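User: I'm curious whether this sequence folds into something compact or stays loose and floppy. Could you predict its structure so I can see for myself?
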Amino acid sequence: MTVSAAVHPKADQVEPPYAVGATLSLQERQYRTLKNGDMFGIFDLSGNSLPYDGGTEGLYNRDTRHLSVFDLTIGGGRPVLLSSTLREDNTALICDLANPDLTRDGKVVLDHSMVHVRRVRFMINATLFERIQIRSFAHEPQLIRLEFAFDSDFADLFEVRGTPRARRGTKQAPDVDETSVTLGYVGLDEKRRSTRLRFSPTPTALDGGRATFDMEIQPGQQALIYVEIDCNDTPAAGTRDLRTHYLMSLVESRRWMRTRSARAAAMESSNELFNEAIRRAIADLYMLITEKPTGLYPYAGIPWFTAAFGRDALITAYQALWLDPSIARGVLAFLAEVQATETSAAADSEPGKIVHEMRNGEMAELGEVPFHRYYGSVDSTPLFVMLAGAYYERTHDAHSLQKLWPHLQAAMTWVAQYGDRDGDGFVEYYRATGSGLQNQGWKDSYDSVFHANGDLAEGPIALCEVQGYVFAAHRAMAVIGQALGHTAVAALHDEKAEALRIAFEDKFWCEEIGTYAIALDGDKKPCRIRTSNPGHLMMTGMIAPDRAARMAEGFMGHDFFSGWGIRTVASGEARYNPMGYHNGSVWPHDNALIAMGLARYGHTDAVAKIFEGQFDAALNIDMRRLPELFCGFARRRNQGPTFYPVACSPQAWAAAALPALLQASLGLSIDPAARAVIFNTPKLPSFLDEMILHNIRIGDARVTVRIQRMGDEVAINVRERQGQIHVVVRS
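Assistant: Here's the prediction. I'll summarize afterward.
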């Protein structure tokens, strides 16, 4: 085989220019987001997208901002915000507005809050639909002017993130008729991207950047305006009635979400605030799912990561596996389809490797950023196999696994031949060029792997959690191989898993800090710092119980536990920074995976503490929505968590964190061979007295169970059962 030369970055190397910039905090303004398919939108609370330096607002499709300005004014003034909310299922944004004081010649001619404006918008099929309802509560007829200012910079998402460009494509002159405007752009990749805005009724005036409606409204009467913004490469013909199309598309949008989310088990509890949080989490999870020909695929997060990521989707599907295994099936099928088949230095790919990130924008098409189809993650490949094993254990879907088997074999060949190039038994990461990601685990900041004195580790680097994923991948191959009749292959992977476990315990355990090193550097020296990374080992079952107990105790201490969750790096370590992306912050998905591992080793009190901290955090966040991460400052009385300035929200694996934490708390597992839903030492957190889980499925059978606190114990009863399925409680 041919192995490309790897670049071993020096420790003083800084982040590449396509890292997310933080010149403007997303926390300075409150936003509302919508997503459907490859389209998403970021709007202020009034539903507008306003132009300002460093701003992220706008309407995006396939990594391009198709509308950078969409600004509604009333009588030339900014509307007064009354309320702004997303539907509980995330399908529509609803904004209630009022007119400001309207003046003429320095005199107020209409007091504020005499005209009510309600905006309802949603998106489907790469098109945003909006209905604006205007109603007058004045005592006399009013002539009201509503104006929509609009523009598109057709910026690539990486430009919005802060990556500079030397050259750009060409904006086309707007194409305007009586009711529509088409904005166009021809990129350096020679692709034409367009945005078509249509209005109904016919505007009083319309040009390439503004639609004006002068409307006389009688007391108590209302008027309606419909807007359709089509971001398809070839916009649909403009002969459809906008009102009819709006109503038909609204039904389609809600049906789409209802059909997808109906696959999942549903939850309700005695705590209405928890119900709000879990409903939002489930709605976020399904909003972030894009339906591909291979099945469901969760995109990582809005705004920066609204694309197919390997690691994020694999972990999200793993967290949600008990809830809806069809997500895992779709993720595995898609990643198998785009699995690497050749070696490419620019893409950091080798045969069998699982993709890290896929982008469709102009800069990715041109190679200005390496992410058109980029394979620079060391963990996606073993996670792919690990999820396949977990999916089989959840479903016994041998048919899907039979189709995946060649891809699983190719992935494990990559682990052996490319992942472990030096033959020491551990998987390390390399990058083939200086343009790829410097660190290729989930903590991929340039400064996330370091020694006790603060020196950055030099590669090739063997991360501790990656070895756990490889261990789990070997175990998965053994289970799947046995099920498919490949008994010799199964036995071989069992042997490899045990050999890796023994070698790992010998090389990674650091007695003096009571945990495992985050990594071995290029000289095989352990990075002896206390991080959250070893927490992922517990969910794989790789480590010795006594060492898991040491780690559990450490995670619950003040150095690690902020009051909201476990920090990525313990306070007191050389590069600890509670405001750092990976060096002291708190990530919900990280905490959920650690909790799943703690549950496996029987540390139920620690699971409850994490669950309670994360739920308390959600209570202090808009819409009860856990973000990608928040800062790791210690919890303060009567204050919520400190926000991270450019965190994605919603984020798929953060949305899946609460369901995963509930699973860990209840010790919930599913045995399809026994047709059993199993609760192993179940425990309810302090904020829940009762929990009902609806429609937990095994094949075509399903069961609904009621879980009640009874002192220090819980009682579990079957409320409804369809098909062959039963419930087992183990204490």
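Summary: Residues 1-13 have pLDDT under 50 and may be disordered. Residues 121 and 141 are 28 Å apart (CA to CA).
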